[in-house]
Every structure is written in C-alpha cells, then in structure tokens.
Write a structure and sequence with these properties.
The chain is of the alpha/beta class. It has 20 helices and 15 strands. The protein has a 7-stranded mixed sheet with strand order 2-10-9-8-7-3-6, sandwiched between helices. Strands 11-12-15-14 form a 4-stranded antiparallel sheet. α7 runs parallel beside α15. The structure holds pyridoxal-5'-phosphate (PLP). Its cofactor is pyridoxal 5'-phosphate.
Length: 463
C-alpha cells in the first residue's frame, strides 16, 4: 500500500471513537445502539471503498455525524409511504387503488386496536360466521341470497371455480379469455381450480347456440367474464347474462360471472358509460357474481362473491376459503364502506373514489389556476408552468377506453431538453411526500383530479 493510501485510511475514525462523539450520542438515544453501530460500519465500509476505487475520501467524510444521521434517516424511511397521485388515474393499482372513506379508516383502527366481534355473536355467544356482518349488507345492496368475502377478486374467481366446478367443464366464450395485469389469466385460473376450460365462439362473435352445443354431461358451469380492461369493437356479438341464464335453465347449469370492478352505483352519475352492476346480474338470474372491493366500489382490497345460498354454502366450506379468507381489517373497512351505500344522499361526499370520479372539470381547472401563480414564479426561469385540459381515467381496468375531462398543471423545460424534464420528475418523486405525475409531449403533467390536499401539495412543490 502506498504512503498516500495509508494516509487516507488513517483518516477514517475508529467506530468506538465515533460512538462516543458528542454529536453521535444523541443518535444512539434516538435510533438505538444496534442501528447506529450498523450505520457506522456501513459508512466506514463506503469510505474504504471510495479510497480503494477513487483514491479519495468521500465528501461526506468531512462530517461523520451528519453522514451517519443521513444514513439512518434514509434507512428508517418506511418503504410504503404516502404520495400525491397526480397521474390522472383514479384507481392506480401501483399506488394502492381506492382511498378509504373516513368511516372505513375509523373501523380499521378499532379493529387493529381492540378485540372485535369478528367471529363472535353477542346474542348468545355462539361462534358467528366471519363474513356474516358484511354478507347481510351485500345481500341488501345486491338482492343476492348470500355472500362470501376473500382476499381479492382473483381469489374469488379461483375459489368460485374450485368449489363449484372442480373436475368438470366450464364453458367460456373465446372473446372473454381475459388477462388482467399480474399473471391473472382465465385459462390459467381455470387449470389451478381443477376445471376444464371449454372455449366456444370466436374472439369477436359468440352466440347462444355456441354455449348450447358445448354442453355435455360433465358441464358444471357457463361462465361470463367481464372484458373490463379492453373492448372488442366492430363486427361483434356476445350473449348477455340474461340470455345465457335462459339458455342454461333447460340444462340446470348455473351461470357465474367474473365482473371485475362491479360498481354498485350506476357510473352514468359520474359522467361515465354504464358499467354492469352485480345487482343487475343477480336480478338476471346469475347464480354467482364475483367482483373487487377496491375498484369502483371504493373499499379495501377484497374479493366479493354474491349469489345463491346453496352455492355460497359450498364455497364457505371449501378448504381454499380458509386459505383465502379476508382479515379483520379488510372486513371492518368493507362493512363501513358498504354502509355508506345505504345512504345515497351523502355517498359522493363520503366515498373518496366516487368523490374523485365525480369531480367537475371546471372545479379542477379553477384549482389549477389557484396554484399556478406561485408555481410559475418558483419554477421560472427553467420551466414554463401552465394550466391545460387533460383526460383522467378511472383505472384498474375499469372502463378502459373512457376518460373524464380534467385539468393539469404542466411543466415544460424552457431549454426543451428531455433530461431536464426527467430530472424534474425525479426531484418531485424525491420530495418528503413524493409527487407523482406523468411525462407526455415534452412536459410533466400533474393532473389535479385526485388533489384534495391543495396546501400540502403547494408546500411540497415550493420546496
Ligand atoms: C380486476 C379484475 C380481476 C382481478 O381482481 P383483483 O381484485 O385485482 O384480484 C379479475 N377479473 C376481472 C374481470 C377484473 O377486472
């Protein structure tokens, strides 16, 4: 080792000495001995690497206390953190889909803090059913006879098939062999559930006779899958649930539907095209309908199955139900969310998903105008800030080709350089409450549809 390197290494203080540094002892009180020692070791290691690779001490080695404090702050940051969702996608899967209503937040906090009547009925102390409270509400809201709740809709579809059609044939239209993001594909789920998929019709057209001709003595179900994340347009034909139920009656075959989003409310009230609703399908005679809790319903992640009493009873008794069941926090949040639907007068006010979908473009535009002057001044001269109309999306595969008029704040680099745009987007992602927008057409777009904490955003963006 050269004299120079030796000299550099000698400048790295001993960990024991650092631990007694009056600037570092407060860190021990705050983060604990173990974490501070680990952080010091990590920093010493980084300094050694820097000497070996670049023959210099890192700049931070000027002040070890600050460097270690920074390291501890970074490492102590939760991996799951609050962000501002200004992507324009209301139900953003990567950002956690539906925001919970205050009533749901309170219900979850209680379920976390205190013992709750999860499987315990207070009248008579017999062991109640885990889904019972929620099932009552689901029946009231959808007109179904009974209900079952599991971890998510993927689990609901798997369980529904495993409990009603294992070892048997399930007839599905070729136009409905859907892939949802994250490796959920109907043919694969079918195999996992132990069912044999019988494809009928073509990609664009399937008729009643296609289902009829596929019936064998081993047919267990006719299944419909809502093509929630794409649309087939042009020369198309499909068989509605009502038609299929009429067709199936002659054979005594139940019809089941994977509805995906399953809004309990007519989406036309939000200025969106109608999305099929579970209550309609139940009224049409479908035996089982499954849908998500955290898509348009606006509740927690959950899979909900509603339908005929005896089929739900089979599902409840299936061993997979135990493996896929929802936890107490989910059930508490779902119950509180469903209760909001009993009071339609205040639903839009109290349920964030609907409140955000329902926001009027003019109000969003006004909000953008309010924020503009401070931001334009702060980001000048490097960026031009403007208010522009844009289109938001419901997201999570719900109503995939439909969009809602909205307004965005756009940041365009005066230099016209894409690298500056990327740097800005990265800087906003690095804020204490990260701000997530999207880059399009040479600018960074912050769609304000989902912005409710206006002061909080301004505080971040003016840092
Ligand atoms: C979203 C969706 C699923 C998966 O639901 P998760 O709740 O995300 O598991 C399944 N089927 C359809 C048609 C969907 O739209």
């Amino acid at each position: 080792m050269t004299q120079d390197l030796r000299q550099l290494f000698s400048q790295i203080p001993a960990i024991d000495r650092l631990l007694h540094d009056p600037q570092i002892t407060p860190l021990v009180a705050r983060f604990g001995h173990t974490q501070v020692v680990n952080a010091l070791r990590e920093r010493v290691q980084q300094a050694r690497q820097s000497i070996l690779q670049a023959q210099v001490l890192p700049a931070w080695a000027q002040n070890w206390a600050t460097a270690v404090a920074q390291y501890l702050e970074q490492a102590g940051r939760p991996a799951i953190r609050r962000v501002f969702n200004l992507t324009g996608t209301v139900l953003h899967t990567n950002l956690g889909r539906a925001l919970q209503a205050e009533a749901a937040v309170h219900a979850v906090c209680d379920a976390m803090r205190y013992p709750v009547t999860l499987e315990y009925s207070l009248d008579g102390a017999s062991r109640g059913h885990r889904d019972q409270a929620v099932a009552g509400l689901l029946c009231q809201l959808t007109g179904a006879e009974d209900a079952c709740v599991v971890n998510n809709n993927a689990a609901a579809v798997l369980l529904m098939l495993a409990a009603t059609a294992a070892g048997k044939e399930v007839v599905v239209s070729r136009g409905e062999l859907v892939e949802i993001g994250g490796a959920f594909r109907i043919p694969d789920v079918m195999r996992q559930a132990g069912c044999q998929l019988v494809e009928v019709g073509t990609t664009n057209r399937t008729h009643s006779k296609d289902y009829r001709q596929a019936v064998t003595e081993n047919t267990a179900l006719f299944m419909k899958v809502h093509t929630s994340n794409y649309q087939v347009m042009g020369f198309t034909a499909s068989v509605s649930e009502a038609q299929l139920v009429a067709e199936a009656q002659a054979y005594g075959i139940p019809v089941v539907t994977d509805l995906g989003s399953g809004s309990l409310l007519d989406m036309r009230t939000c200025g969106l095209p109608p999305e099929p609703m579970p209550q309609q399908l139940i009224a049409d005679g479908v035996s089982l309908v499954s849908f998500s809790g955290d898509k348009l319903l606006g509740g927690p992640q959950a899979g909900i199955i509603v339908g005929k009493k005896e089929l739900i009873a089979n599902i409840q008794q299936h061993p997979l139900k135990r493996a896929l069941r929802a936890d107490k926090m989910t059930l508490a949040a779902l119950e509180a969310t469903l209760r909001l639907y009993l009071q339609p007068e205040t639903l839009f006010e109290n349920l964030p998903t609907l409140r955000l979908l329902h926001r009027d473009a003019a109000a969003i535009h006004e909000q953008a105008q309010r924020l503009l002057p401070a931001l334009a001044a702060h980001y000048s001269p490097a960026f031009t800030v403007a208010v522009q109309p844009c289109l938001s999306q419901p997201g999570s595969g719900a109503l995939p080709v439909d969009s809602l008029p909205s307004a965005a704040l756009t940041f365009t680099p005066v230099s016209g350089q894409g690298s500056e745009l990327e740097a800005l987007a990265a800087r906003l992602r690095g804020l204490p409450v990260p701000v997530i927008g999207r880059i399009a057409g040479g600018g960074l777009w912050l769609d304000l549809r989902c912005l409710e904490d206006e002061a909080g955003l301004l505080e971040m963006l003016l840092q």
